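User: Predict the structure for this protein chain, please.
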Amino acid sequence: MSPFERKFGKYAIRNLSFVLVMCYAVGYLLQMFDRSGLLITYLTLNPYAILHGQIWRLVTWVLIPPSSGGLFFTLLMLYFYCSIGTSLERTWGTYRYNVYLFQGMLFTIVGSFLLMGYCYLFKPEIPLLGTALTINTPVEYFTVIAMMFSTYYINMSIFLAYAATFPDAQVLLMFIIPIRVKWLGVIYAVMLLFQFLGTNVYGKFAIGASLLNFVVFFLTSRNMMHLNPKQIHRRQEFKREVRRSTGITKHKCAICGRTEVDSPQMQFRFCSKCDGNYEYCEEHLYTHTHIKRQ
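Assistant: Here is the predicted structure, written as structure tokens:
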């Protein structure tokens, strides 16, 4: 366990994939009732608007779901990403999966601001003087550009991470053909590469920023790529047992004996009503019998 996980692991959001899918569901409902699309434009990741006070866009762009092909395929897509995300969270741990997703979102936000800087540095005449598309102001220009930044490529990074973690898992292609996930991952990776090479500079920023978290994950997890999920879990359990047997813990419950190594997300507090330095976990802090010296 890293020092960051020990310190911030208690703030990790459980079932984050389900939360993300619920955000997509809200986005689909907004698209259904907002036929004009005007409301969606106020939710996109528009760096120009953010710098002019519309800071809610730093969060609301997550509500904009990937494009779908109808209700059935939308529900199928939501279920698929929820299931593979849940599998990753169970294998990696809640903290690491949170870091992976939020890291991808952060890179996307940073990428949008870098793209805005690129436009002003290298193509200032486009956002300032207008284009052939009758875009006459920076607001209109970056409104169009902001639509390129969505959670689509973040979802792709989730699938690529799943393919790297569970390479031998099988899925039914077109509900009929069984195929290993690693081959689907290779196919998607090639598709993304062609999309990256064939798109304009704006698309390159969007794709590169959203998938940078998978690149970081791949580079930092190469030594575990040859292990299957059960081996990864056993390795993590072994490291936890080593720390438990050799490490010196900082916190220990006086009732159940649990430490921060046994329960890294649990909080420990000293009781001010007990005589002596007695520390308790959050489950026994308010239920224990106070110790009084005679």
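Residues 124-134 have pLDDT under 50 and may be disordered.
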